[in-house]
Amino acid sequence: MxxxxxxxxxxxxxGPLEVLRxxxxxxxxxxxxxxVGASGSGKTTLLRCVNALEDYHRGSISLGEEQIGxxxxxxxxxxxxxxxxxxxxxxxxxxxxxxxxxxHMTVLDNVSLGLVHVQKKSRAEANRIALSWIERVGLLDxxxxxxxxxxxxxxxxxxxxxxxxxxxxxMLFDEVTSALDPELIGEVLSVMQDLARSGQTxxxxxxxxxxVREVAHRVVFLDRGVIVEQGPPEEVLVxxxxxxxxxxxxRFRGVLR
Length: 257
Fold this sequence. Notes:
alpha/beta; Rossmann fold
């Protein structure tokens, strides 16, 4: 399967602390790749580098044939202008732990905003597309509601609809259920499962191991900024090869039996 997202020898530091130490990873079209690991292992930083929200110090990230965030110029790696990076981000939808909805806008306006201002669609076309995604995440009865009138799970579903409405090549999910009450987690994971079944390419950071086991094509275990193990869920989650992964999975023993 041809890679749609390619990460090659990625290094990232915060001061003297190297948080990504030579990450190389490919994601094929239609694949769901789950990043797992303890807090501080580099998962969120990796996603933020992919979306050009963080600079990195060595390596490359490419979406298709295009390098994200940088260009090679006379043997040097030079960051692209922000206007060009913004265009590149249109191919990378990202959903964060916090919902990041505009509080003064309705559900419909939150989802249609990028379609109008980034993709330059007419208001009527943007609303048509937005409504189709709002319906798909089960919130058609909330189109005129404001974020403060929604539960956390509903807000996160709006955030997902807003991202996928832009038709990104790859969706990035960063622990999107971590801020939710337990009874609301399932409704968000159900939307993500639906996207996976429809063939959406996804790079997902998650501690929801049942979801990872059932939905991911490949699981990548990060520890201290390096990839320790990767492979199909039935191998990585059931038959871990390294002590580090075995220790990490021990906390999920009751879930993964």
